[in-house]
Each structure stands twice: as C-alpha cells, then as structure tokens.
Amino acid sequence: MSSEVAIRAEGLSKHYHIYDRPHHRLMQMLFRGHRHFHKTFQALHDVSFEIRRGETVGIIGRNGAGKSTLLQLVCGTLTPSAGVVDVKGRVAALLELGAGFNPEFSGRDNVYLNASILGLSREEIDARFDAIAAFADIGDFIEQPVKTYSSGMYVRLAFAVIAHVDADVLIIDEALAVGDALFTQKCMRFLRRFCENGTLLFVSHDSAAVTSLCERAIWLEHGTVRAIGPARDICKDYNAEIYQQDRAATRVSAAKEGRDVEPASAPKPAAKRIQAIDYAPQRVEDKRWEILKGTPLHNAMTVQAFNPEDSFGTMQMEVLDVWLEGEDGSALSSITGGEIVELVVHYRSNIDIDSVIVGFQLKDRRGQILFGDNTCITTAQNPVSIRAGEEQKGRFRFQMPLLQSGEYSVTVSVAEGTQTDHVQHHWLHDAVILQSLCASVSTGIIGVPMMDIRIDSVAPRAGHP
What is the pLDDT, as a whole number, of residue 189? Predict the structure, then answer.
C-alpha cells in the first residue's frame, strides 16, 4: 500500500432543504435571506477521513446513515454544502441502479457513453468493447434499449464498463446485491484482483463481504462518522449495536401491542472467564452435540475476565469458558486438520429459561465466517431448559476441515428461543484463538480431508486406440 493519499475528505457536509408545500419553494426565492420556508435535513455532517492509494475501505451503516450521499460526494455527482473532498486518479463508480444510463439508448450506445465519460477515447472503447460485452454476458440484449433490461442486466452492463476503464479508484454501492450468484462471484473475483493495486471504496450491508474485501471500515451513523478502524473490529461492533437497536425496537413494538417482553438489560461490565487446568469433560460419542448439566469447577480453574468490548447481550446467561479438545479430552491450541474435535461452551444462567440455544462460528483473521452451527434444529422437538444458578455445557463434535496455516478465532453465543425468534443473552467474539499448522490445503479458504486420492487405469473402449 502506498503512502500517497488517494481520497481525502475534510469537514464534508451535505444538507437539503425540505419544503412542506410546493409553493414554499417560490416563497423562499422571493424572501431569500429574510424568512425560511423550509426545514434543513443534514444527510452528512462534518465527515473527515483519508484513504491511501491501494487501500480497501468499506462503509457500513443503517439505511439513511449517509453512505450513498458520501459516495456521490466522492464521485463528484453531488456538490458538498461544506467541506472539501479531493480524489486523485481516474474514478469509476457503480452507484444507484442504472445511474448514468440513457434508457432510450441501446446497451452498446450506453457502453460508449459511460466509457467516454470515464475518460476512454473512441479507439480505446472499440478495442475493449468485445471484452466488456463478454463480461456483461447479456447476449443480444446489448443491442436493445436498456429500458427493456431487468435490474440484473443493468448491473451486469454497468459493472462490465467500470471493470474495463483502468480506474485508479473504484467505488461500489449496494448495486451488486441484485445480481445473480454466478455474476456476483465474477465481480468479487475482479474486485479481489483490483484490490492488489487499486483503491476500493465499498458499501454493503453484508458485513462478511466487508471483512472479506476490506482492510478498514468507516461506520456512519445519522450522517456522522461513528468509528473508523480495522474492518473486522468495526463490523463486530456494528453488528452488536444493530442487535441492541433491533431488540429495543422489538420491546417498543411489543409494549404497544400489550405483549410481555424481556426487560432491557445492559451487558455487565466484566463477565468472568474461567480456564480449565486439569479437567477432562465427559465424552459424548453418539451425538453431534449435547448439553450437559455442569457443576462449579472453580477449585480446578483460574479466573480471568473476558473483554466486555468483545461481547454483547442481556447477560442473563453468561459464557464462563470455551475450549476445543481432542479425542483424548485434552485442550487444543493448534490444529492440523482432519482430526475429530469437540468445541465445548460452558455457561451459567441467572434466570429460568425453557429453551436454550448454543451456537458458534469459526472465522479467519479478517473475521470472515468459515463455518458454524447451533443447537436449534437438534433441540427443536425437545427443548433444553436451565434454571437460575445452574451451569451447562454445549458440545459440538465434528471433523476439523483443513485450514490454511495461520490464526483463526471461535465466536460463541448462548440464547433462548427458536432459530427465527430468540433473545441473545451472551454473544462472545473471539472466545478462542486457534493456530492452524496445516500445509496441505491446495486451493480455497478451507480444504476437506480426502479419504483417498488416486488415478485408475481404464481399459480402452471398443473402436478406440
């Protein structure tokens, strides 16, 4: 990554005048500076950041947070109300669906129009048109007016253009969400190649996509910068905040309807972490997972505090300890892949609960979820209960896949309810850090342990030499 700044925003703001009635616009013009017939809406306020050349930055935030407004200011399609934004190099953007297309023009005409706006000459477009058409893969529709296109065809053509204009800065909004799976994968492959040298500003509600693609993230909230930092950390905090806001909205809605809901409860400042020293848990050979009644183990353990910033929930159930163990019951800190392991989640409840849920996710160093599971399906017909003051252990037994060498983390949670309707009591990020020592993953993020690999000879078919 270069030290050269590709995008710099200083005190960037954008506001709009909102008029209650159409004639107020005319009255505002007549009484300019004397009376106000409008309300001011601040879409963006005092936003400042720097993005260096070669850096990949994601922008996250809820609807109305100002993400699209910020991108349009960076692209130059909107003029800021205050502040400045400076972008170095050729910028290509995929913003609102169909933005920049003339609906009466054919796809071919729009390719020439958009590419010329982005700085390509007629000769350069001629040389690249076949590659653009092949990338879009919309067949004969390239000769039809784009007003006849589906939303997916719009995105295919628009992305194909920006992928072939040799941009220095690429800006992608939520538009990729409407593409089909195959085309989305093609776009993601292109973006990963582009990120090797170019500067990417990427907006998505999919935090997994942000952590997968981006090094840093900017969290916008109500038009202002809530936080800037490593993508993994920002997305983790954002998801926790969204959960708390959604639960608060659910409580308000339930209160209006007269339904009973759990009381609001802020996370406790320091849930206790207990690490096992000489304890081998009971084996479970015949089930994928099982919840076992626990007994206090403090005599055999030492106590260490979890970082409260790495967890959220009501804390009416608390995760006490998490570990991975091998077939002999010993705790594992490293893996090679292919071995049978059990993930154990030890927790305590502070209230009576009739339907316990335990779950986990395994993530790579950038926070991308590789796999996970929970107990919802297994206990759907026979829910597991827990009483106040009791302790249990959720156990997941599986064959560890082959993971590229490096560090991985396990996130765990304990909740109550069902798969679709549940209360999160304790969600704990990065409860366990594992080191993969595997050197046999030939391709992909994870590998599957092969039972056998060979090449068999086949007798020639009749009539063939």
Answer: 80
Q: Residue 394's Cα: distance from chain center in Å?
A: 26
CA dist 253 and 80 (Å) reads 38
Phi-psi category of residue 411: left, alpha or beta, with phi > 0 → left and psi -120 to 50 → alpha: beta
User: Is residue 193 domain-shared with residue 294, that is, in the same domain?
Assistant: no
For the cut 70, the answer to whether the pLDDT of residue 227 exceeds it is yes
* pLDDT tens string 2-16: 668 899 999 999 988
* The total number of structural domains that make up the chain: 2
- Which domain-ending residue is among 240, 259, 289? 240
| Position 248 in a domain | no
Instruction: Examine the domain organization and report whether 280 and 417 are in the same domain.
Output: yes
Query: Which domain does 362 fall in, by range?
Result: 268-447
Does 253 fall in a domain?
no
- The CA-based dihedral angle spanning residues 320, 324, 330, 336, taken in that order and rounded to the nearest 10 degrees: -160
- Let me know the angle formed at the C-alpha of 109 by 122 and 121, rounded to the nearest 5 degrees: 15
Least confidently predicted of 162-171, 197-206, 212-221: 197-206
Question: Same domain, yes or no, for 207 and 292?
Answer: no
Task: Give the residue-averaged pLDDT of 35-51.
Answer: 85
pLDDT, position 24: 73
Q: At what angle do helices 107-117 and 122-136 cross, to 10 degrees?
A: 130
The two three-digit tokens of residue 12, written as one number: 């960037």
Task: Mark whether 161 and 58 lie in a shared domain.
Answer: yes
- Over range 265-271, report the average pLDDT: 36
Number of Cβ within 10 Å of residue 14's Cβ equals 22
